[in-house]
Design brief:
This protein is an all-alpha fold. The chain has six helices and no strands. Residues 317-332 have low confidence and may be disordered.
Length: 332
């Protein structure tokens, strides 16, 4: 078996076929819009300069009326053919052909007025292609006539079903009203019982109100007693806290005084020790100075002794008439 691979061509073709009526309607409207613009330009150019105040609105209205009428004839004719109204549909086609023929003559006058023969065929094509689009749309939509009939039958069935639903709803409402009458009759008998129960409830509510009043008074007294106890406890705690703070302050003051006294004693002891050390150091320094003085004295005496022992006269040298002085200043 050979598998046909069309790369989605069939699905694309079916989708394009489905939207072809929309494309036809779009092209039909665009052709009418294009010719409407040309007609507006032509109508504006026909007015004199002193009529310029009304030229634009009148030209717009003429273009709108003609093209909207053409569009309405086309769409109504399509609807008539789809719904099977061939006579009215044929009349719509005849009217569209007549409007197209008139627009053809109008194109001739436009080209003659503008002195541009080259514009004749494009504008004529624009006029007649709109009619072709309209006819093709009628033929295309008439193929779906059975579908629209089925849709009308479905709508009729839905309307009939809605009517049956409304009838059932009306019957249900009547039954409900009858049931309400019976319920009201029962309610009238129940109201007396309810009234009796209401009286009892009022008495019960009164008793409950009195009991609640008593309970509220008891609760208020209990709350007042609790407040008094809480106030007393708070006062006692505040007093104890004040005493504790005072005791802590006194202990802190005592500890500070003791520390200050100990610090003063320690400084005095350190001062005494420093004085003793200084005195001892002074004694040692005095002893060292005395010892050094003795040593210096001994050295001085030793030098004097050595100087006395060294007093010797040196003889003069030959050839030298001078006399050398002795150490004591005398010549030898």
């Amino acid at each position: 078996m050979r598998i046909k691979n069309d790369l989605g061509a069939d699905s694309i073709r079916e989708k394009l076929t489905d939207i072809s009526p929309f494309l036809i309607i779009t092209c039909f409207i665009l052709s009418l819009l294009s010719f409407g613009v040309l007609k507006y330009s032509y109508q504006v150019s026909l007015f004199h300069e002193d009529q310029s105040m009304i030229s634009v609105p009148i030209a717009i209205l003429i273009a709108l009326v003609s093209q909207l009428g053409r569009l309405a004839f086309g769409l109504v004719g399509v609807r008539d053919f789809v719904r099977g109204k061939k006579v009215t549909g044929a009349l719509g086609i005849i009217a569209s052909i007549a409007i197209t023929a008139y627009e053809h003559l109008e194109v001739t006058r436009m080209v003659k007025y503008w002195s541009n023969p080259e514009m004749y065929y494009p504008i004529v094509f624009l006029v007649w292609i709109a009619l072709v689009f309209e006819l093709r749309l009628m033929m295309t939509m008439s193929e779906h006539k059975d579908t629209y009939k089925l849709e009308e039958e479905r709508v009729a069935a839905a309307e009939q079903k809605e009517a049956q639903r409304k009838e059932a709803e009306r019957a249900r409402m009547e039954k409900q009203i009858k049931t309400e009458y019976e319920i009201r009759a029962k309610e009238s008998s129940l109201q007396q019982k309810l009234q009796h129960l209401a009286d009892k409830e009022q008495q019960t509510a009164k008793m409950l109100a009195e009991r609640n009043t008593r309970l509220r008074e008891q609760q208020e007294r209990f709350n007042a007693r609790l407040k008094e106890e809480a106030l007393e406890r708070k006062t006692r705690l505040a007093k104890e806290e004040t005493e504790r703070k005072a005791r802590l302050v006194q202990e802190q003051a005592d500890r500070t005084a003791r520390l200050k006294k100990e610090e003063a004693d320690r400084k005095a002891r350190l001062a005494q020790e420093a004085a003793a050390r200084k005195k001892k150091a002074d004694k040692k320094a005095t002893k060292r100075q005395a010892k050094k003085a003795k040593q210096d004295l001994k050295k001085a005496k030793a030098k004097e002794v050595a100087a006395t022992a060294d007093t010797v006269i040196t003889p003069p040298t030959l050839g030298n008439e001078s006399k050398a002085p002795a150490t004591n200043g005398k010549y030898v």
